[in-house]
Specification:
alpha/beta, Rossmann fold, 4-stranded antiparallel beta sheet, 16 strands, 24% strand, binds adenosine-5'-triphosphate, antibiotic resistance
């Protein structure tokens, strides 16, 4: 990793002496930037394994919505000995992001971000609040137009051929807005029809998804009356029903109870074991550490580290490594010391 500048007073950021070359294992520094805590970070150039391909000309094939026959072809993956999950690509990346940029006014939310997610990978995207995770995933899934850059799902350009790209993806966006006057079952039927699935398959998969996710009893309840966790689960069901190749999930475990969380983990494992690829964001480092084969840490719209989870962790708990990379904030100078005083003294 390139030289690090200690953060300004009031924070304890990365210790330059302790920093191992996480980024340089996958990237090389080009220009500098700082995290919100003041930590100095390089702009990475991704290296093989997680490196995206160069931008391609837009494909000219007509867009397809719905079950793509090519989805029935097995996805080639390589499985390392001793591991149950594929960890290295045997084909083009499932998701390639090249030079993605988005600014909101003066705020640069995503700064020329490049990375690739191998096929058959469970990939975690982590970062502090405001790091740019949702903005990145929104641009990657065709929900938010980038200012610059390219996104490929397999070899399909998301912004040049959105219909075809979206047929390959299942998306659980942040702050999901569903047609909540529909019941859970009606919503799944609507999504299935939008995907041009046949009625029998929609009904069959809906029953299975509702049952597996513990929503059968509320299948005919309006989604507006669902709890936050139930809404998250029906959103996940909508993302899965057309059997995508790539799942992009923004905070899929947020608000979800532990039992359902375990079910979702099993669903995702099964999906990946079948050759699918999952990209998820989360703030729960323990979850990402145990679930994800690979992880990217981002802050201030840039990558701080990307690679196999074990490589990024460097033998430490991911939580600890994350704090080292991002820079932990500590209360100093009597910050909120008034909170500790007795109430009678005001
Ligand atoms: N629609 C918008 N208009 C203006 N600024 C925005 C908008 N969306 C995001 N931002 C800003 O872009 C930056 C990145 O936001 P983003 O939601 O991508 O972060 P995040 O990593 O997903 O954060 P969190 O973990 O809190 O969900 C933030 O500074 C945010 O204020």
């Amino acid at each position: 990793m390139s030289e690090q500048t200690p953060p300004p007073g009031g924070t304890s950021g990365p210790d330059p002496a302790r920093e191992e070359p996480v980024i340089s294992a996958f990237t090389e520094p080009q220009e500098s930037a700082t995290t919100p805590s003041g930590a100095h970070i390089p702009t990475p150039v991704p290296m093989p394994g997680f490196a995206p391909p160069p931008p391609m000309p837009a494909p000219t094939a007509a867009g397809i919505i719905g079950d793509d026959p090519s989805l029935d072809e097995p996805v080639p993956t390589s499985v390392a000995p001793g591991r149950t999950r594929p960890v290295r690509p045997a084909g083009p990346p499932a998701l390639s992001i090249v030079g993605l940029r988005k600014a909101f006014g003066a705020k640069l939310a995503v700064a020329d971000l490049s990375m690739a997610v191998p096929q058959g990978c469970m990939f975690g995207l982590v970062g502090p609040n405001g790091a740019g995770k949702t903005t990145t995933l929104s641009m990657a899934t065709g929900l938010l137009r980038p200012d610059a850059g390219q996104v490929l799902v397999g070899d399909v350009d998301v912004w040049a051929d959105p219909a075809r790209a979206k047929a390959l993806m299942g998306v659980l966006p942040d702050g999901l807005r569903l047609f909540d006057r529909l019941s859970g079952r009606e919503l799944l039927k609507f999504v299935g029809q939008m995907r041009r699935m046949d009625e029998a398959t929609i009904a069959d998969r809906s029953n299975q998804l509702l049952s597996t996710l513990g929503l059968s009893e509320d299948a005919n309840t309006m989604v507006a009356d669902y709890s936050a966790g139930m809404t998250k689960k029906i959103g996940l069901a909508c993302a899965l029903i057309h059997r995508p190749r790539l799942l992009v999930l923004d905070e899929p475990f947020e608000s979800v109870d532990p039992v359902s969380g375990e079910t979702i983990r099993e669903i995702l494992h099964e999906f990946v074991a079948g050759g699918g690829t999952v990209v998820l964001s989360s703030h729960v480092m323990e979850l990402v550490e145990t679930l994800c084969d690979a992880v990217a840490v981002m802050a201030a719209g840039r990558l701080l580290a990307i690679g196999d989870t074990d490589d990024v962790r460097q033998g430490k708990p991911l939580q600890q490594r994350f704090l080292e990379l991002v820079g932990a904030h500590h209360l100093e100078g009597g910050g909120l010391s008034w909170l500790g005083r007795s109430q009678s003294s005001n």
